[in-house]
Specification:
mainly beta; 4 helices; eight-stranded mixed β-sheet; globular; hypothetical protein yedk fold; three-stranded antiparallel β-sheet; 11 strands
Length: about 240
């Protein structure tokens, strides 16, 4: 589907967290290649990564002008293969996780921006961020932002950075169309990154959901000694 030359032995992942390696498809020397990059973008001009905020997303509205991303948007656009992602919906003071995927079940490519950061000792780190856009009315019930997905017919246009001109790619920076994606609620097991298995994406049943609800805390009690008898007596 993505047309890269390699045959990587990369295992299925079901709970990828920022700073972990993720698969990326990028064009190098005129051909598409599979690479692993750290999810957490580092601009080339950063001196010390420990003093720089972790950039896991890039806003579509400002990506062409923001100093951290503008060079990558022109020269290092990439795709992140996926068949779903997670979002958390806030309700009743709690956040419930949802699994979001294409309604037809097909995999898709997330719009990404890549950068190779070079350290003071010559070390190199390939990093990537996911481009996001304002959610459509349908997906906004979960969250006001969504990842930008690139249709297979537009893969070549998004990946082509040969002319150092991003105008053709700008038109692709929008939310998925209404009805393109579907979602269902899942277990809060996904909240722990150590859980990384196929069970995470299964719909949660009403019984399972009830079992995950936090138990009401018992009110603390303290015995209070009765006041000393002052000899006045009481009507009650």
């Amino acid at each position: 589907m993505f047309g890269y030359a390699e045959q990587p032995n990369f295992p299925p992942r079901h709970n990828i967290a920022p700073t972990q390696p993720i698969p990326v498809v990028i064009v190098e020397n005129g051909a598409r290649h599979f690479r692993l990059m750290r999810w957490g973008f580092l601009p080339a001009w950063v001196k010390d990564p420990r003093e720089f905020a972790l950039l896991i997303n890039a806003r579509a509205e400002t990506v062409a002008d923001k100093p951290a991303f503008k060079n990558a948007f022109r020269r290092r656009r990439c795709l992140i293969p996926a068949d779903g992602y997670y979002e958390w919906q806030a309700a009743d003071g709690r956040k419930r996780p949802f699994f979001i995927s294409r309604r037809d079940g097909h995999p898709f490519g997330l719009a990404g921006l890549a950068e190779t950061w070079t350290g003071p000792n010559g070390e190199e780190l390939d990093t990537v961020a996911i481009v996001t856009a304002a959610a459509s009315r349908e997906l906004a019930v979960l969250h006001h932002r969504v990842p930008v997905t690139i249709a297979p017919a537009d893969f070549a246009r998004w990946l082509d950075c040969a002319d150092d001109d991003a105008d053709a790619a700008t038109d692709l920076l929008h939310a998925p169309a209404e009805g393109e994606f579907a979602w269902h609620e899942i277990s809060i097991r996904v909240n722990r990154v150590v859980n990384d298995d196929a069970q995470l994406i299964l719909p949660i049943s009403e019984e399972e959901r009830a079992a995950e609800e936090p138990k009401p805390k018992k009110a603390a009690t303290r015995k209070v000694a009765p006041p000393p008898d002052d000899g006045q007596g009481s009507l009650f």
